[in-house]
Amino acid sequence: MASRCLYQATAGDLANAISAGHLIRELRRSFDVLIGGKLDDKEVESWRNSIPTVVELLLETNLAEVQVLVEFKIPITDVRMDLVLVGSHPGSGRMSVVVVENKQWEWVRPDPGSQMVHAPGAPNSNPRLHPVRQVWGYRQVLIDYIPLLKQSAEVSCIVNMHNATGETLATIRPSAMGLQCDPLYARMYGKDHREQFKRALRTALAPEKAAHYTQELLEAPVLPTGGLMAVVSDSVCHRSVFPLLDEQREAYDYVRGAVTRSKQGAPKEAVVIVGGPGTGKSVIAVELLGALNRQGVRAVHATGSRSFTQTLRDNVERVDPRARRSFSYFNSYTHATTNDLDVLLCDEAHRLRETSRKRDTRNGYDDGRQAPPQVQELINAAQVPVFLLDEHQLVRRGEVGSVQLIHDTATAMGVKVHQIDLRHQFRCGGCPEYVTWIENLLGLGSEQGPQRWLPLDTFELYVARTPAVMENFLRTKLPQGHTARIAAGFCWPWSKPQDNGALVNDIKIDDWHRPWNSKADRTVNGVPPSSLWASDPAGFDQVGCIYTAQGFEYDYAGVIFGKDLTWTEQGWKSDRRANKDTAVNVAPRFDQLVRNTYRVLATRGMRGAVLYSEDLTTNRLFARLGVPVLPE
User: Do 555 and 224 meet the contact criterion of CB atoms below 8 Å apart?
Assistant: First the structure.
């Protein structure tokens, strides 16, 4: 998987394209070919107004032969960097890379009590990510995921605030705001800092070997994103692991600012972080948990998933047994003292239930009072309650978590709500195109319906004619160091293990027979417990379901569509009778839940997915849409 950009040229050639009026047209054309979708007018305005201000300085410093990559993207994410300048370092002769973030802001000021800023155009005057923090994150991603840069290059970054004065920028100096960014590698310049900007360019770049180094960068191998569970213990117990970008970092910084404000006596505030699969919700939660606890803040992580919470506990316990106490469940706060915690991180909040328990005398409701809503208990438990959710992941009867529910409950409790929407994709090869394709396929969030699949160079998608072909393909990925799992809709019975502990091959499709994952809470006959199915290598030989796959990720996802959702001439048809999950097949919203289920299963893969449907017509639909068919 190679990195790419919308436009590549020397600074001199880029200047010619600008003066001839060709640049914007070329960028629009490249956007349509490489990315597609609607192009934001504000982005075009930035191209027109900001790029020339950097190109002019490159020419004035005799760096016309330095290479400029416009809208640079690496395969792990769909985030694009405004400009990446490539040349050689004047001192060492090594590759030198400078990331430039352009801002058209005329004014900016610090947000009191946080490391964020206020700037023009923010909805409802909400604080925004500090631009130096933003560009520093881009630098960190380049270093972390492109080994060539860590080993053989100098990488620095600059914020180009070409409409703001130095006096304005002085109010948000990184050192004054406590940002942990090395000033040698991260700088910010305003419109009256042109000479300082030029000195920084001369210090970092020389034109020699610029074309050669650029080709090396574009062709350099990119490491895949690591799974959350592989490094969660390090993140929680020791240090920050994941580079957070754009809205991820904004959410992280906003929550930390809310904690500071709460300790200064500010009114209580809830934070809602919304995003689809692969946008980094759980990464944000885990990074916040580790950072806050290391600062002495009382923070706890909570979910409604036994598998997810148990896996998190098992992973951190190996490093620090005490850290296990940092992970809890939504129903753990029925008797919590008001604001007992500083921060409660409610991950996968779409899995909220109406209440944490049934009304009975054993739970303290012998006077007939109705149990309070679970979301109310969670808001009550912490000074800063944080909810991270994706409403399209409602897959079980009784789950009620939604943005509206949280807003309404908090408002009724007199608690302010701040919402942050995550846009960028870090799973599925950093390809929002795949997630959108799956959602269109299943009729979720769009009226377009199934669309033709256009192959991507960063994500593999196939259809298999049989589950055996799927399994064989995924098995070939294991010796290559990848993780792979097969998950299925709940369309087959789930038997108890045999007397000797052996699992029963409940899933039978022609001559292919496999067992569901173990329901045990410990390893039996080498088969991992349900909580470790997605992460233990021995989990490959069992088929997972929504209960063991949701919240997890692996490199390659195999998805078996059962007959509870099939394609007909009239569109999708859901069939309760084909579904064996008694907790779902009687739900009034069964059709919605089963579509959501397959969306979740199909978006677990970070590098690729294989689809197979037991229904021949549905399987043919996948192939007819242009999904490559695996050879038998």
Answer: yes
Contacts of 161 (CB under 8 A, 6+ apart): 103, 105, 108, 131, 169, 188, 189, 190, 191
Find out whether 49 and 193 touch, Cβ atoms under 8 Å: no
Question: From CA 378, how far away is CA 352, in angstroms rounded?
Answer: 10
What totals of helices (H) and strands (E) does the chain contain, helices first? 20, 23
Residue 255's nearest CA partner among 295, 228, 226 is 295
- Pairing, β 299-303 against β 153-161: unpaired
Using left for φ > 0, alpha for ψ between -120 and 50, and beta otherwise, residue 158 falls in: beta
Q: Which residues contact 11 (CB under 8 A, 6 or more apart)?
A: 55, 58, 59, 63, 64, 65, 66, 67, 68, 85
Average of pLDDT values for 465-473?
98
Encode pLDDT of 205-214 as tens digits. 999 999 999 9
Contact of 293 with 345, CB cutoff 8 Å: no
The DSSP string of 143-196 is HHH-HHHHHHEEEEEEEEETTS-HHHHGGG-HHHHT----TTTEEEEETT-HHH
Whole-Å CA distances, 359 to 29, 30, 354, 362: 61, 60, 12, 8
Cβ-proximal residues to 258 (8 Å cutoff; 6+ apart), any chain: 114, 269, 271, 384, 418
Residue of higher predicted confidence among 278 and 249: 249
Residue pointed to by tokens 């190109």: 55
Chain-centre distance for alpha carbon 58: 35
Give the pTM: 0.78
| 3-state helix vs strand vs coil in the chain, percent to 5 | 40, 20, 40
Burial of 496 (0-12, 13-18, 19+ CB in 10 A): exposed
Residue type, 477: K
- pLDDT band for position 360 (cuts 50, 70, 90): very low
User: Length of the chain in residues, anyone?
Assistant: 632
Is 37's pLDDT higher than 60? Answer: yes
Q: Is 61's pLDDT higher than 60?
A: yes
